[in-house]
Specification:
The structure holds two protein chains of two kinds. Chain A is mostly beta strands. Chain A is 0% helix and 54% strand. In chain A, a hairpin with a 5-residue loop joins strand 5 (45-52) and strand 6. By secondary structure, chain B is mainly β. The chains are: A mainly beta, B mainly beta.
């Protein structure tokens, strides 16, 4: 079955970077895109950006431009999201999701908790 | 890009119908038939319930339906069941390969 498995929880200090992985299985990885979505504690969902697993094209939410980088490794069917210059308000659960045509996120990873604290 | 506007909470009794609204602008909801809805239970990942305004993925109950009028999309749940109690988020394509979510609506089944 189609599955996205994310890396484990992270605790980081302000100013550090974090890189979350998302390993896909059960489908042809390069056929679809991956969106990254985060959710701060008790808050709503925030779209962070999208990467094409076919050609690596990316587009990021304006508020994260310059701090976020999304990449893929097609040899291992894994997507990565790196966030730099972490602040306390980056504390959130980070999700990857498969993005199908018509911008539907049909399969989600289990989420990765990133805590930013001094 | 501003978040889409949803009511913070709605409630209904088992068997009733409820509707959750999602208001955007003519730059997102109003311009594209690319609105999706996600259900999220506490501590779980979101689940796709509706896409393309009114299409249901395989396996989603036909009690869930979606519609759109102008800049406002709506999710209707008929025959409310206890397991429908969850948070619901709308999401719209906003052009230039960007998406925007609504703030979320907490559904309580009384």
């Amino acid at each position: 079955q189609v599955q996205l498995v994310q890396s484990g929880a992270e605790v980081k200090k302000p100013g550090a970077s974090v890189k979350v992985s998302c390993k896909a299985s059960g489908y042809t990885f390069t056929s679809d895109g991956i969106s990254w979505v985060r959710q701060a504690p008790g808050q709503g969902l925030e779209w962070m950006g999208w990467i094409s697993a076919y050609n690596g094209n990316t587009n990021y939410a304006q508020k994260l431009q310059g701090r976020v980088t999304m990449t893929t490794d097609t040899s291992t069917s894994t997507a990565y999201m790196e966030l730099k210059s972490l602040r306390s308000d980056d504390t959130a659960v980070y999700y990857c999701a498969r993005d199908l045509p018509q911008w539907r996120m049909d399969v989600w990873g289990q989420g990765t908790t990133v805590t930013v604290s001094s | 890009q501003s978040a889409l506007t949803q009511p913070a909470s709605v409630s209904g009794s088992p068997g009733q119908s409820i509707t959750i609204s999602c208001t955007g602008t003519n730059s997102d909801v109003g311009s594209y038939n690319l609105v999706s809805w996600y259900q999220q239970h506490p501590g779980k990942a979101p689940k796709l319930m509706i896409y393309g305004v009114s299409k249901r993925p395989s396996g989603v109950s036909n009690r869930f339906s979606g519609s759109k009028s102008g800049n406002t999309a709506s999710l209707t749940i008929s025959g409310l069941q206890a397991e429908d109690e969850a948070d619901y988020f709308c999401c719209s394509y906003a052009g230039s390969v960007t998406l925007v979510f609504g703030g979320g609506t907490k559904l309580t089944v009384l």
